Automatic annotation (TrEMBL):
It comes from Craterilacuibacter sinensis. Keywords: NADP, Oxidoreductase. It catalyses: dTDP-beta-L-rhamnose + NADP(+) = dTDP-4-dehydro-beta-L-rhamnose + NADPH + H(+). Pathway: Carbohydrate biosynthesis; dTDP-L-rhamnose biosynthesis. This is dTDP-4-dehydrorhamnose reductase. The gene is rfbD.
Amino acid sequence: MSRILITGANGQLGFELRRALAALGEVFALTREQFDLADEAAMLETLDALRPQIVVNPAAYTAVDRAESESALAHAINAHAPGVLARWCAANDALLIHYSTDYIFGGAGDQAWSEEDAPEPQSVYAHSKWLGEQAVRAHTGHHLILRTSWVYGAHGNNFLKTMLRLAAERDSLNVVADQIGAPTSAALIADVTAQIISRYRLPTQKFDYGTYHLAAQGETSWHGYACHAISHAHSLGYSLQLGPAAIHAIGTADYPLPARRPTNSRLNCNKLQRAFSLTLPSWQTGVEHVIERLFHSLQTASASNTQPCPG
């Protein structure tokens, strides 16, 4: 059984990786407090103690706007730490799986980005993630870099959960409609990672290291994403103040933020699907599944609160 280290275990992707990888080996799921990517010495001490054969690194500095004023910390976690992990993996014959982002692309045009397209990061966060990719490639050939987009899940904070919360509190919302991509669930990313690791462990299978795009199929805007989510939540019986008709489309210029976002976040995932014999689901499927999980949790909590006290 493989010894697998997961960083950022309490993040939305780390949380799903703990579930998906549990059956694949001895899993060490470490939180930020247990494995701080901004502390190189502590990282190396932990790696030397645990001796993982596979390092899975979903941990990252993801506060996109705050990174504009916390550049040093963003670069320490997103750019420098992946290189530290890569050097250790190279020296210890371990596989490194590292996650990156659609934000490394400039965002022009309307074609889906391939792995061969030239990055053009537009923000501190995006630049730090691009440098992290380069550090991984520079220090170990035994790596997988999985670029993904618009990640959300039932655990942690994300756009989907924010929309559901606001729809329960307000009678209208304004949501950006000129940024296009594919909402991708943390559960999907984790499940694909598990399939890749299972293939890696088969000695008879050719294993293709390198960079891959991993996102749900199809495309939408943040506005389209919000409308679909609220429509499905209504169909389940969510208690909401508004419906899709009250979600108004606005432009990026109408909602200025410190960090620039790419308008085109489409990712071409054909390479991943061919290499690992995968068929990725539509973005709508994942969104609906997470909403159903959240609704089930609400119902369970409500039923627990209304049960009479024993005795």
